Amino acid sequence: MPADGSRQHHLKEDHYPDGLSATGGVATNCQTTAENQITEVMSVEDESTSCYCLLDSASVHLLLDQPGSYALVGEPLTQAAVKRLKLAVFGGLEAGGATSYSLRVYCVDDTPHAFQGVVSAERSQGGQLLEEPKTLPFLANTFSLQVSIQDVPQFLWSIKPFTTCQEFSFPSVWCSSQQHCAFSLQRFSPNTSQLSCKISVRQVKGHEQILQVYTAVAETEKDPAPFFLQTDCSITSLSGPGAFNIPSSIRQRICATFDTANAAGKDWQLLAQKLHLQRNLGFFSQQRSPSAVILSLWEARHQDSAHLDSLASALEEIGKIHKTSPQDEPESDCSQTQGGGECVRTN
Q1: Where do the record's region annotations for Disordered lie (predicted)?
Q2: Can you tell me the distance from the alpha carbon of 279 to that of 291, in angstroms, rounded to the nearest whole number?
């Protein structure tokens, strides 16, 4: 149990729908019980004192009394709904054929976990990432996704007939976390050491992305592409020594200031409002330290020590709003110092 009195378990999960609230998407959190039965916990639109759900643009945050397995379930209500796809192309020599080269195109949910699974699988078979991954907005317009290979040097490489364009139905893309296809190319001469072409990924009556391939083809070339080292290819963690935490002294002072309402009205409800967490206040009111839970949620959404400035600004704004009687204003430590992230600002 945290020392500040916050008893909640925080779960964060990346999601891939764009404009979820704008398109009227309704999401429900469901828990899997020990008997493998699904029970509805809450709707995102509902207020609850036992569960708090917050949808950000790329992730969902859940605060729960009990740990468990939870799912975010939703459906598009209009054709304006969008599912973000991450597109990547990998390549490598085919087994048993020094002149055969395979290009594998993946269309996966735009989340770190989904792409990391592809990276791990390709690494195990010596695949190379040939182009920086790109994002494609996939519309809920019921139209299919087409993947085609273009501009293959015709005097250097050949490709099997009728395989230059491959198609995935709308349901298979919308309801699945991963789609992939492969193009098998044959070089006319073993001396051909370069391959250049384009991969077009487009939705009918939707968006298109082009993946440009230009790679050396050599039997000895097994090193992973430098894109593997990019930060978006790894899974980040909200725990451990690398995670950002509000310094303990600042957290304790904020909680002491805002957990009890005073004549100036500077209580935890105003803190929630200024930190843009004013929804479902009934959940916070049931907590032993509402301010501690609010700060923990804010902390999870802002995993960068640079965001302490925005926290300091919010507290300063609260101080300005209620500066009617300076003698009633408690001091608020909130200006950054380098290194430890402690801040001291006195109203």
Answers
A1: 1-23, 322-347
A2: 14
DSSP code at position 165: E
pLDDT digits (tens, 9 = 90+) for 284-296: 888 889 999 999 8
Architecture of the domain whose range is 9-76+238-328: Orthogonal Bundle (1.10)
Residues of each domain in the chain carrying CATH 2.60.40.2660:
82-233
The DSSP annotation for 31-68 comes to EE-TTS-EEEEEETTS--SSEEEEE-SSEEEEEESS--
- The fold of 82-233 is Immunoglobulin-like (2.60.40)
What pTM does this model have? 0.68
Pair 123, 225: CB distance under 8 Å: no
Q: Where does CATH 1.10.533.10 sit in the chain?
A: 9-76+238-328
Burial group, residue 320, by CB count within 10 angstroms (0-12, 13-18, 19+): exposed
Closest by CA position to 76, among listed 221, 174, 216, 8: 174
Helices (H) and strands (E) counted in the chain, each on its own, are: 7, 17
Asked if 186 and 99 touch (Cβ cutoff 8 Å), the reply is yes
